[in-house]
Design a protein that fits this description.
Strand content: 15-25%
Low-confidence stretches: none
Number of strands: 5
CATH topology: TATA-Binding Protein
Structural class: alpha+beta
Number of helices: 4
Helix content: 25-40%
Order of helices and strands: EHHEEEEHH
C-alpha cells in the first residue's frame, strides 16, 4: 500500500468529496471494503481495465495530521495478457495517473520526488 500526501494547504476531502464514486468512475464497481490503519478503503475486485487484477483505494485518516490517499494497484503479469488486453495497458497507466493527479494535485514527477524525500527523511527505515 502506498500513501500519498496532498499539496501544501490542500486536503483530500476537498479534492475528492466522494471517494467511493470517484474510485468507481476510474476503475469499476466497488466489491468490498478493507481495513488499513484503522480506515476503511474501497476494493475494486474486478476492475474495468483487464490490466488490473485488484485495486484498493481510499482515505487513510490520521488524528492530528492531514489525511492521506492510500492506494494499492495489483496488476496482472504482462505475460498473461492477450493482445487486446495489452492495448489496455496504456489506458491503465492513464487511469492510474489521472486518479492520483486528481486526488493529490501532484503529477507523476512531483509524486516521485515527494516519495524520495520521505524515504530520505526516514532514518529508522532499513533498505
Amino acid at each position: 500500500m502506498k500513501e500519498y500526501k496532498m499539496r501544501r494547504g490542500e486536503h483530500l476531502e476537498e479534492r475528492i468529496p466522494d471517494m467511493k464514486a470517484t474510485v468507481e468512475d476510474y476503475f469499476g464497481p466497488i466489491t468490498e471494503t478493507e481495513e488499513y490503519k484503522g480506515s476503511d478503503l474501497y476494493v475494486v475486485g474486478e476492475p474495468d481495465n483487464p490490466v488490473f487484477e485488484r485495486i484498493t483505494a481510499g482515505t487513510v485518516e490520521y488524528s492530528g495530521k492531514k489525511d492521506k490517499l492510500g492506494v494499492d494497484f495489483v496488476e496482472r503479469d504482462p505475460t498473461e495478457l492477450g493482445p487486446d488486453e495489452l492495448e489496455a495497458a496504456g489506458e491503465a497507466v492513464d487511469a492510474k495517473n489521472s486518479f492520483l493527479l486528481e486526488a493529490t494535485g501532484r503529477d507523476a514527477k512531483s509524486r516521485r520526488e515527494s516519495m524520495k524525500r520521505t524515504v530520505e527523511d526516514d532514518p529508522d527505515h532499513d533498505f
